[in-house]
Specification:
The protein is of the alpha/beta class and 227 residues long. It has 7 helices and 11 strands. The strands form 2 sheets. Strands 3, 4, 5, 6, 7, 8, 9, 10 and 11 form a 9-stranded mixed beta sheet that branches. A two-stranded antiparallel ribbon has the order 1-2.
Length: 227
């Protein structure tokens, strides 16, 4: 049996991650690629082991990122990955549902705990109040800033309902695996904007220009003449 490497990479080697209890999936790469690249500050809610934030830094090296997680174990693993990449990310052990702060950010990004049922060993993506989670994330977005997320297609309506109250320029990008229907959905919007909603025709979840070559979603859509 071939032993798995202790360190694996994302974005074609641009990001290094230590293999452990919870390893980021392609969701992390897609979400980071969906974030606007001209922002100066970002909040990663539920940062876990750091996959999303480290990929964001690869797209936008000048961005200042704060990572929030309730789990000290996850934050310890995240610290290790930050050091592995010689990166700079501020970490806070807080629960977004009761975090007391007035600080806001240009981007709030999250891969929320949308699954219900028996928690996995790493306790990620399970049994949170998704509506309240999104409301608390939205409260941390600066006027004119963005909220970005990726969720299972089955629950994307819950996100869109909450965003629709205060966000415009809502962009929706379905992601397809082997099934005939979308499995994941990327959603972002701009706080205070009155712009309408765009729903793109979608991409395959194994689309290499994003996963391997490190293109952002906006650059991909531009190349495909979909903007």
């Amino acid at each position: 049996m071939t032993q798995k490497q202790e360190v694996f990479t994302l974005l074609g080697g641009k990001v290094k991650m230590r293999r452990g209890l919870y390893n980021p999936t392609s969701d992390a790469v897609w979400l980071a690629a969906f974030a606007p690249t001209k922002a100066k500050t970002a909040l990663d809610v539920g940062i876990g082991t750091g996959g999303v934030s480290l990929c964001m830094l690869a797209h936008n090296p000048g961005i200042s990122i704060t990572g929030l997680d309730i789990s000290q174990e996850m934050l310890s693993l995240c610290t290790d990955n930050i050091q592995l990449n010689n990166a700079n990310i501020s970490l806070l052990q807080e629960n977004i549902l009761n975090w007391k702060t007035q600080e806001t950010f240009d981007i709030v990004i999250t891969n929320p705990p949308y699954f219900q049922g028996t928690p996995a060993k790493h306790n990620a993506h399970h049994n949170a109040d998704l509506k309240k989670w999104v409301q608390k994330c939205i409260a941390r977005v600066k006027p004119g800033g963005y909220f970005c997320t990726i969720v299972d297609a089955k629950v994307c309506h819950k996100i869109i309902i909450e965003m629709g109250h205060v966000f415009g320029d809502i962009t929706i990008l379905p992601l397809f695996g082997s099934k005939d229907f979308a499995e994941r959905v990327l959603i972002r919007g701009r706080l205070g904007s009155r712009g309408g909603t765009l729903i793109y025709r979608g991409l395959q979840m194994n689309y290499e220009p994003v996963l391997r070559d490190g293109l952002t979603i906006d650059s991909v859509l531009s190349r495909l003449n979909k903007i």
